[in-house]
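Objective 1b: paired records.
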Amino acid sequence: MIPDEALTNVLVSVLTYGVCQLRLVKSDPVLADKDCILSDLLGREADFPGYPSGGANPTWGSPSIVSPDDGKMTCAPVHFQPSGMTSPQTIYGYFMTFNSVVAGQVLLVWVRFTTPLILASDASTIDLVVNLYDRNFLPP
């Protein structure tokens, strides 16, 4: 589960600055999800041929209110596909970062897939649609 404060950070950064990076993880950090820090994930970032350096920039829809106090944002599908794949790469999850002027690169969210996904050839694809929910969120 992602803590509410992390979701608030994502929603505010996306609404304020419009940019965050969606990145894939190629090896399991084995730490409990709550114990992962940015350096744990950066060292495990995917690097298959065709993977965008530094991750992909998702395009977010407008925030919506799904109940009196709950906000939601959804990104358009983010497509990852190898080109010139020579050996399979297993993807364990994704994380999102934001480059802050004050704090530098910040980890916003880390999500481990229930079942890892295998990119075995150039025909393999991963299409991610991220839905972010936050309780007690009021858009600016």
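Objective 1b, second protein:
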Amino acid sequence: MYLVVVGNVWDKTDHNFYLGLRDQWSIASEMNQKATHHFAGKLMVIFGIDLIIIRVLNESLVPTMVFSVLTALIQRFYSYRHLKTMSQKILTVASPLVK
């Protein structure tokens, strides 16, 4: 239930160093932070609903731990890939100007 509630507000956080997904890639760029938090908010809501269903059907804590770790890893990977993609696009656009 926590992931569903936090996921709904996650993408509304402003760029800061104290709240939200704080890795070197999301802190480096405000555009990357916004895109990452938007993606992470949707991901948290989806995984939160899945966790509620899993907990009703299964008494084990293993799926809960797996989903939590998986959510964190996917968010960090998305943040890294998004920053790299943004950097590539900026270099592609700026390269004719450098010559």
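Residues 62-98 form the longest helix (37 residues). The chain has one domain: 2-12+20-98.
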